[in-house]
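@channel sequence for tomorrow's demo:
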Amino acid sequence: MRPRDIRLLVLIALVAIFAAWVAWPANPGIHLRIGQFEFSRSIDMLLGLDLRGGMSVLLEADLPEDQVIDADSMATARAIVESRVNALGVTEPVVQAAGARRIQVELPGIEDPETAIETLKGTGLLEWVDTGTEVLPPGTQIVTDFGLSDEERAALPEETVVYSTVMTGRNLRDATVEFDPQTGAPVIAFELDSEGARIFGEHTANNVNRILAIVLDKEILSSPRISGAIPDGRGVITGQFALEEARSLVTQLRYGALPIPLRVVDTRAVGPTLGQESVERSVRAGAVGLIVVFLFMLIYYRLPGALADVALVIYALVTLALFKLIPVTLTLPGIAGFLLSVGMAVDANILIFERMREELRQGRSLERAGEHGFRRAWTSILDSNLSTWLICLVLWMFGNSFGASMVKGFAITLALGVAVSMFTAVLVTRTFVRAVFALAGDKIRDKKWLLGV
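structure tokens (generated this afternoon):
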């Protein structure tokens, strides 16, 4: 055996061992500490909405159909929605544009769907409004002069009171949930930036004993009375908040107001039980498919088929390891893409072995037949895989443009699987064949049935 083949066998063994360790379900993760350097990384298989359970929400701009929506406004809305989703603590959420007017949001493992929806679609426009001496109860809808055009003002009924906005949430630096030390009820503590602190300080100093209402999305949250100047830009929003409601409001305030209002077009919930059943059925179907492929290769191609089966095991381990390391969020279409790539890997081996058969029938030696078989099959394998990658690119672009995350998942897992299949078919299987022919060539040269000829 040539030294180059020995080195390749050692490399393949190391890669297989590492991939098996990463793919192991109970993997503890990577935790390194060398002096001051510390690296910690969990290695888990990320499951998508259809496997883990959760909720999918389709949001649409709540504007007239004939009104043109600026692309930058939709991009800003998507970024704000993504920030709000991240604040919910959801693992591996998906937030992406779905056309020119819609945003697709996927929330795997979400436990409180109603609160999540309100957090996502709420415009989050915070205003401090001067209501004079009038105390408005919480929940009262009002009209303010912020963002109100002359045409809109003229169209209002005569009896409508338009209140003056002193400041908006644009000047908000931070907001957190705290608890009233006397009642224990949740309150929202806020801090303003320098400009907001100046405006707030001047207004409170000049309007002692007047009401400065705190308004969210044109709805009164509370109507505190100004008892004195507040120059430090800090305050508290009180109201009849439940804890989850307070947290949702804080999320909306901290991550900005949406530039355009959004409405929920469609929601789809997947229970964790259904997701677990999908995982179990997918694993069962995949195992049956792999066993059938292994048996076919072993029965039809005998010794080369057995070597290909070992290469396919390495292929599966490496692919699953890459899914966990990248990481790739696995969905049902993603599993389908992975299983299809297994077929592509088998197809490459079949092309190679058929070329080898032709060479052996023409009387060539085992070594020459193996080399010629791989060389003649390589062009077909490369052309086939390039075509598949091109299709995966088209599918990925389609899924990215129209919010079809499952199509993207299928494209990514298929493209990655095809790339690994080239490694296993061309390098792993070829090295195994060379090694076996070099070690046992004399014993199997005349046993044509063992070579499937």
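heads up for whoever presents: The first strand starts at residue 30 and ends at 34.
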